[in-house]
Amino acid sequence: MLHNVILIIHVLVAVGVIGLVLIQQGKGADAGAAFGGGASSTVFGSQGSGSFLTRATGILATIFFITSLSLAYLSTQKIKPTSVVDTVIEQKADVTAATDKPVKSTSDVPLSD
């Protein structure tokens, strides 16, 4: 459950970072504003949207990094590494315990639970 919540937040933050990066102006756009590019009539004021968008991108990038680490940690905790041989031995032991007879061939081992 927690894994799914973090995954949803991770995807939303990733989309947010992509959107904020695409909205930002390049460094060359400031030269045009110096010669009367009309930057004083923007929504974010005469300074422009640079500091707000940069700060928002930094915050979302930090959240993205934290959720990435959280998802990596949770994925390693869920999976217990086992070999195929160990799985077959466990299944044979379960069948032997249920029937009280030794298993002589692998065809007696059920393929699924």
Short structural description:
Helices cover about 65% and strands about 0% of the residues.
Q: Characteristics of this structure?
A:
113 residues, 0% strand, 4 helices, rod-shaped, 2 domains
What does this structure look like?
By secondary structure, the protein is mainly α. The protein has two domains: 2-79; 83-113. The chain contains four helices and no strands. The longest helix is centred in the middle third of the chain and has 29 residues, at 50-78. The model has no long low-confidence stretch (mean pLDDT 76).
What is the number of helices?
4
Give the overall silhouette.
rod-shaped
As residue ranges, the low-confidence spans are: none
Helix and strand element order = HHHH
Major sheet characteristics: none
What percent of the residues sit in helical stretches (DSSP H or I)? 55-70%
Report the strand count: 0
N-end to C-end Cα span: 24 Å
Radius of gyration from the alpha-carbon trace, in angstroms: 28 Å
* Tally of domains: 2
Strand content: under 5%
Write the SSE topology:
Blueprint: H1 2-23, H2 29-34, H3 50-78, H4 84-99
Helix pairs in contact: 1-3
